[in-house]
Amino acid sequence: MFLAPGCDDASNSNNANNTNNTNNTNNVNNINNVNNANNANVPFPVVDTAQVQCFGELAAAGCVGVDVAFGGQDAQFLGNQPSYTDNGDGTVTDNVTGLMWVKTPDMNADGVINVDDKLTWTEIQAYVGTLNAEAFAGHADWRLPTIKELYSLIDFRGTDPSNGNEENLIPFIDDAMFGFAWGDTAAGERTIDSQYASGTLYVSGDLLFGVNFADGRIKGYGLIGPDGNDKTFLLICVRGNPAYGVNDLVDNGDGTVSDLATGLMWSRDDSGAGMTWEEALAFAHTKNAENHLGYSDWRVPNIKELHSIVDYARSPDLTGSPALDPVFNSTSITNEAGALDWPYVWSSTTHAASNGMGSAGSYVSFGRALGYMNNHWVDVHGAGAQRSDPKDGDPADYPTGFGPQGDAIRILNFVRLVRGGATWDASVLAPATCGDGTCDAAETEANCPQDCGGGTTGECGDGTCDAGED
Fold first, then answer.
1. Last residue of a domain, which of 224, 239, 254?
2. Residue 101: domain span
3. How many CB atoms lie within 10 A of CB 67?
């Protein structure tokens, strides 16, 4: 079983800008010896995804030890937990990033977020000037958020409704703090039409990167919609911490790269080969057993950590490279169109569905985010897009991709390991009795969903009623 990879409308043209890899002197001096400590005092702290549920190949499951199958995934590591303050004046302060946000995209202030609040790209640019002219909430330094700033708000407790199940919907943003609404179906929109604009244009064409807080993805959106009219977006502006999203990368000369802006250390090389999501987690176990590059605490990054190293000033068509600083080595591939390209890279984050399944993992496309449209492959969402793939399966089953934009389905994605930042959380481990079909005293819906009714087992869908399945 696989979830639809998101059904946003996007054209197949491209264009963009973002800053990356500049030096910051007001930060940590040496990250080479970083162990497992969160780094909220750095200028670019990565906010945790807030994902608290572990998953197997298909569904929610109890968390297991770090060095066994499906161990080492997102929910098992604690990073900088989301923390917000509602300032009571129409703004919200992110206590982790230091960014201040306009609370709601309710442009006409009628108390309802709907299609009437959406703006075209031209209107978006003009709106910032209006906000500053009126000194909204006492400030005149509002700006459009970069895609990295906007993505700092994403919350992977959300569930994707793209599978068609619209019960128990949870958005990918804290809607207790920020204004959010599902698509305005009364006006002909789809439930997932909740695309928030950034100020980051794709460097290779006419796409504007945005975050869809309804389905949990970054995509490049065409400025002109399929109907020939200007596409419209929701918008929340930001101010403060101009260093947020700016990397400070150092080649340590030992096969590792430190980002002094985030406090994370990365493997300079990727995995060199594609693999399933489960195999990606196992790859980290193997490298730790080898004391890879002198360390034994490598892990697969969560999706927000992985996104932190995207370089939006680069792309295959503009710079002949991945959207990644050249301090990193990236294995090239031949893509579905037969062209030189660079791979999708797995995160440890599951892209959960509103029907309770977890059969998809989130990835970042450092090369072209291909889709099959009008009988050919195109860079439909742009290098730097965040989408999802089935955790397992055969890519040959998707010869023309999947979903309305025909997202290229690869399944066998690459891995780039990280260390530092988040800490191992043993408290989420499932009791030893988890999986025996009985909800025992030490088990809860959270730590053993397959026994206690919080989800289906990792074997659900195999045609056999296994222990823990109804």
1. 239
2. 84-239
3. 14
